[in-house]
C-alpha cells in the first residue's frame, strides 16, 4: 500500500462528496433528524429517550454509512471507474483504505453533529465523557463503511447492494441489546450476539450512560476496530474490477 496513492484516493472521494449535496446532506443531517424525531416521540414518556438514545447514536451512523458506502463503491465498479483506477499503479488496498479514510472523515463530522445535537440540544444524559461518546460513534460509523465496502463486492446492481441490509444490518440491530437486553436472550441468540460487532458498539454507548469509567468502553472499541480492519482486509480480497 502506497500512502501517497491512498491519500489521492481519499481526496478524490471527498471532492466527489463535496459536489454531491444530496448525499452529503444525507450523511451529515439524517442522523441528527432521526435523533430529533426519537426525542420528539418520547418527550412525554419519561427517561426512555435517555435509555435508548445512546444505542441509536451507534446504530443510525452505522446504517447510513453502510448504505452510502456499498452503493457508491458498486457504482464505481459498474461504471468502469474502478477498473481504470486499478489499471494504474494502485492496489486494491489503496482503493479501499482511501475510501475508508474519506468516509471516516465524513463519519467523524456526522458523529460530532449527531452527538452535539443529542447532548447539547435534546438533553441526552451522559455520565461518561462526551468526547468518548463521539469516538464510539465515529468508530461505529467507520464499521458501517468497512462492511459496506466488503458487501459491495457481491452485488451486481445498486438494488442488490441495498438488499444486503436485511442480511447484514437488521440482524445486528435485533440482537445488539436495543430491544431485549443481551443477557436476557436465549443462549443461542446470546452467543450470536457476542460475535456481532454492533453489539459491542451499543454496549460501549450504554456503558457511558451509567458510568464514568472508560475501561469497558475501550475494550468494546478495540473489538469494533478489529472488525473494521477485518472488513477492509476481506474487502481487498474480494474486490472485483468490474461487475460481471
Automatic annotation (TrEMBL):
GO cellular component assignments: ATP-binding cassette (ABC) transporter complex
Molecular functions per Gene Ontology: ABC-type transporter activity
GO BP term, example: response to antibiotic
Location of the ABC transmembrane type-2 domain: 14-242
Membrane topology: Multi-pass membrane protein
Record's keyword annotation contains Transmembrane helix: yes
Protein localization: Cell membrane
Transmembrane residue ranges: 24-42, 54-74, 95-124, 130-154, 161-180, 217-239
Pfam families: ABC2_membrane
Keywords of the record: Antibiotic resistance, Cell membrane, Membrane, Transmembrane, Transmembrane helix, Transport
Family to which this protein belongs: Belongs to the ABC-2 integral membrane protein family.
Family annotation (PANTHER family): MEMBRANE COMPONENT OF ABC TRANSPORTER YHHJ-RELATED, TRANSPORT PERMEASE PROTEIN
This protein's name: Transport permease protein
Record organism: Nocardioides szechwanensis
Amino acid at each position: 500500500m502506497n500512502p501517497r496513492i491512498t491519500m489521492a484516493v481519499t481526496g478524490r472521494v471527498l471532492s466527489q462528496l463535496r459536489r454531491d449535496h444530496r448525499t452529503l446532506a444525507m450523511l451529515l443531517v439524517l442522523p441528527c433528524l432521526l435523533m430529533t424525531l426519537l426525542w420528539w416521540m418520547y418527550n412525554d414518556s419519561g427517561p426512555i429517550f435517555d435509555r435508548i438514545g445512546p444505542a441509536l447514536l451507534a446504530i443510525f451512523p452505522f446504517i447510513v454509512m453502510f448504505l452510502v458506502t456499498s452503493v457508491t463503491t458498486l457504482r464505481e465498479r459498474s461504471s468502469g471507474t474502478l477498473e481504470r483506477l486499478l489499471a494504474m499503479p494502485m492496489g486494491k488496498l489503496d482503493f479501499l483504505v482511501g475510501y475508508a479514510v474519506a468516509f471516516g472523515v465524513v463519519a467523524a463530522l456526522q458523529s460530532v453533529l449527531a452527538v452535539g445535537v443529542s447532548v447539547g440540544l435534546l438533553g441526552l444524559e451522559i455520565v461518561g465523557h462526551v468526547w468518548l461518546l463521539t469516538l464510539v460513534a465515529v468508530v461505529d460509523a467507520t464499521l458501517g463503511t468497512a462492511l459496506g465496502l466488503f458487501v459491495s463486492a457481491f452485488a451486481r446492481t445498486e438494488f442488490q447492494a441495498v438488499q444486503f441490509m436485511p442480511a447484514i444490518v437488521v440482524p445486528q440491530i435485533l440482537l445488539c441489546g436495543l430491544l431485549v437486553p443481551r443477557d436476557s436472550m436465549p443462549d443461542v441468540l446470546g452467543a450470536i450476539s457476542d460475535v456481532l460487532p454492533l453489539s459491542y458498539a451499543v454496549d460501549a454507548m450504554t456503558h457511558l450512560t451509567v458510568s464514568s469509567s472508560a475501561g469497558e468502553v475501550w475494550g468494546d472499541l478495540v473489538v469494533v476496530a478489529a472488525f473494521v480492519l477485518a472488513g477492509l482486509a476481506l474487502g481487498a480480497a474480494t474486490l472485483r474490477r468490474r461487475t460481471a
